[in-house]
């Protein structure tokens, strides 16, 4: 018997649909099989991971019923396409911590499952692609990209993507324009950029799939604070992947994905234009 996602005639956003899209996008972007070519390294990491599991089983006297529940759940995570979601929510933050521990410049945080490369490109003053009636408070996000020595970086790439006011990401939920709330903005000759968008809302990870089942079974919540995703890059510099949050917003203090850092919390103020809010945030890139 093949197991297929539940039919979804109303084209609602479902865990199965966003999971399948995230899994497919990840697989199409990944060419890094060689990272696992070192036998000694694989031996060390796989052995230690298994030992950690064995230790938990002994300490908590895990039963056959629990072992079978785990097996069924792991199978279902794959069927739901939720491995990218699971890993990015509960594991990636430690990988990011280790990867960026020696950076001098701006803080990074996790990428998450919903990045898409090659979004539409704009010069320094840009409005992200959005629907005519895109809901949400207008937000002007502006700043400067510099090198760690303070040199402005002209032509730096500021890629931004975020959910809409309903918590949906284009290309991972039905009914949204392909590049809704995704764009690549190039800085001007002083390294400056200005991006007009709409403030995102707090975001609940899909609750109708395997990750949702785990959350419910463990008595956790499924929320991430409202956030903007960014990748900032320039020739001769290390790309930074980050997210920015909004002070005082829900779940800034208890992000399910553990991806908030104090340096990443914005303080928007009413915009000088009189419409919506604005905030300035500068990016400092480490040399490559
Ligand atoms: C998201 O939007 C996200 O940013 C992460 C890290 C996990 C799930 C959904
Ligand atoms: Fe996100």
Automatic annotation (TrEMBL):
Cofactor(s) recorded in Swiss-Prot or TrEMBL: Fe(3+)
E.C. designation(s): 1.13.11.1
InterPro entries in the record: 1_2-CTD_multi_dom, Catechol_dOase_N, Cchol_dOase_actb, Intradiol_dOase_C, Intradiol_dOase_core, Intradiol_RC_Dioxygenase
Gene Ontology molecular function: catechol 1,2-dioxygenase activity
Keyword Iron: yes
The organism's place on the tree of life at top rank: Bacteria
Sequence ranges of Low complexity compositional bias: 1-23
Top-rank EC class of the record's enzyme: oxidoreductase
Region (Disordered): 1-39
Keyword line: Dioxygenase, Iron, Metal-binding, Oxidoreductase
Residue ranges constituting the Intradiol ring-cleavage dioxygenases domain according to the UniProt record: 141-169
Family (UniProt): Belongs to the intradiol ring-cleavage dioxygenase family.
Annotated protein name in UniProt: Catechol 1,2-dioxygenase
Organism: Streptomyces ficellus
Recorded name of the encoding gene: catA
């Amino acid at each position: 018997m093949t197991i297929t996602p539940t039919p979804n005639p109303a084209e609602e956003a479902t865990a199965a649909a966003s999971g399948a899209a995230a899994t497919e996008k990840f697989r199409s972007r990944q060419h890094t099989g060689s990272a696992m070519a070192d036998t000694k390294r694989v031996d060390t990491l796989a052995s230690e991971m298994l030992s950690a599991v064995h230790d938990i089983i002994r300490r908590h006297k895990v039963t056959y019923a629990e072992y079978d529940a785990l097996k069924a759940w792991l199978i279902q995570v794959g069927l739901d396409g939720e491995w990218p979601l699971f890993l990015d929510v509960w594991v990636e933050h430690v990988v990011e911590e280790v990867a960026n521990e020696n950076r001098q410049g701006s803080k990074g945080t996790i990428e998450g499952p919903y990045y898409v490369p090659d979004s539409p490109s704009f010069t320094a003053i840009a409005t992200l692609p959005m629907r005519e009636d895109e809901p949400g408070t207008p937000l002007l996000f502006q700043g400067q990209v510099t090198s760690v020595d303070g040199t402005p970086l002209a032509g730096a790439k500021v890629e931004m993507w975020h959910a809409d006011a309903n918590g949906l990401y284009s290309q991972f939920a039905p009914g949204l324009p392909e590049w809704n709330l995704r764009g690549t903005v190039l800085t001007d000759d002083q390294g400056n950029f200005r991006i007009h968008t709409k403030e995102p809302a707090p975001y609940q990870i899909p609750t109708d799939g395997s990750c949702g089942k785990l959350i419910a079974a463990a008595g956790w919540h499924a929320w991430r604070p409202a956030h903007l995703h960014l990748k900032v890059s320039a020739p001769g510099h290390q790309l930074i992947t980050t997210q920015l949050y909004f002070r005082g917003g829900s779940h800034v203090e208890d992000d399910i994905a553990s991806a908030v850092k104090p340096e990443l919390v914005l303080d928007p103020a009413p915009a000088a234009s009189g419409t919506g809010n604005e905030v300035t945030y500068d990016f400092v890139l480490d040399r490559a």
